[in-house]
Amino acid sequence: FLVNINGTLLKGPEAKISVFDRGFLYGDSVYEATRTFNKRPFRIDQHIDRLFLSAEKISLEPTYSKEVILSEVLKTIEAAPFKDATIRIVLTRGTNSDLGLDPALSGPNNLVVFTKEIKPNPAWWITDGVSMIFFQKKIEASGSLPKTGNYQENILANREATSRGAYDSFMINTHGHVTEGTTSNAWVIKNNILFTPPLADGVLDGLTRKALLEMAKRQMLPLPLVEKSLTKDDFLSADECFITSTTRNVVPVTKIESHLIGNGKPGALTLKLLELYLEFVK
Ligand code: PDD
């Protein structure tokens, strides 16, 4: 790990932040996870824009400009020896002068940029695919979600999955619609149509998702793409299923609960979409 705290580059173990930081105290922060391909950051402007949109949704007024955040990210990438790296940008509301929720207690934001070498996806994700379970969310959420430092429900959903031997959970909102994975967007293919839940169902505006929507618009996909609310049954009866995230690209899902998806092997269209996606973004 190489870590940049408020402009200072530090090795992982030396990187420390105050215990009065509001991200630590209350999860009062926003974050982004992106990556580099051969030192080139992936859609970094879109990631910084999304960071600011998340901040706006929780009334966190950035004391850093987009330009400064971009230059700190680039400085960190430059200083690190990694070609393909994960980049995490964390912006907290700041360090409190006393305990208390009032944002007026906070000093300026803390900006932390982490970078770490990215490992290639495990080969079995492509040969076998991953398995998922369903997780019922309790917190009502609608509209495009902010990416904040409070991932409690997602952590519970992921824990539940791993404790049951699955890779992750597809989360279900309080209206019974499948929204997304705990750190990924959700997709199914049925009768040669690609479906993904709409942002309005309480979904993060994922940038991998956005790239696939862009490809569909430019007629670069081998099948039509439809944004539509989806139920558990839509997932269980799908011909193919996959998840997407910036760091993992497209990952085939071959089992949900105890049901095999399609023939239980990664779908041909899913693998084609992975190939087309990588060509598009690399
Ligand atoms: N997470 N949904 C949620 C809840 C996420 O946390 C993420 C990303 C995504 C996918 O978005 P994108 O395509 O922009 O990566 C969807 C990252 C990987 C993380 O938290 O590490």
UniProtKB/TrEMBL annotation:
One of its GO terms (molecular function) is L-isoleucine-2-oxoglutarate transaminase activity. Pfam families: Aminotran_4. This is branched-chain-amino-acid transaminase. Pathway: Amino-acid biosynthesis; L-leucine biosynthesis; L-leucine from 3-methyl-2-oxobutanoate: step 4/4; Amino-acid biosynthesis; L-valine biosynthesis; L-valine from pyruvate: step 4/4; Amino-acid biosynthesis; L-isoleucine biosynthesis; L-isoleucine from 2-oxobutanoate: step 4/4. It comes from the Bacteria. InterPro entries: Aminotrans_IV (IPR001544), Aminotransferase-like (IPR036038), BCAT-like_C (IPR043132), BCAT-like_N (IPR043131), Class-IV_PLP-Dep_Aminotrnsfr (IPR050571). Belongs to the class-IV pyridoxal-phosphate-dependent aminotransferase family. Keywords: Aminotransferase, Pyridoxal phosphate, Transferase. It catalyses: L-valine + 2-oxoglutarate = 3-methyl-2-oxobutanoate + L-glutamate; L-leucine + 2-oxoglutarate = 4-methyl-2-oxopentanoate + L-glutamate; L-isoleucine + 2-oxoglutarate = (S)-3-methyl-2-oxopentanoate + L-glutamate. It comes from Bacteriovorax stolpii (Bdellovibrio stolpii). Its cofactor is pyridoxal 5'-phosphate. GO terms for biological process: amino acid biosynthetic process; carboxylic acid biosynthetic process. Its EC number is 2.6.1.42. GO terms for cellular component: cytosol.
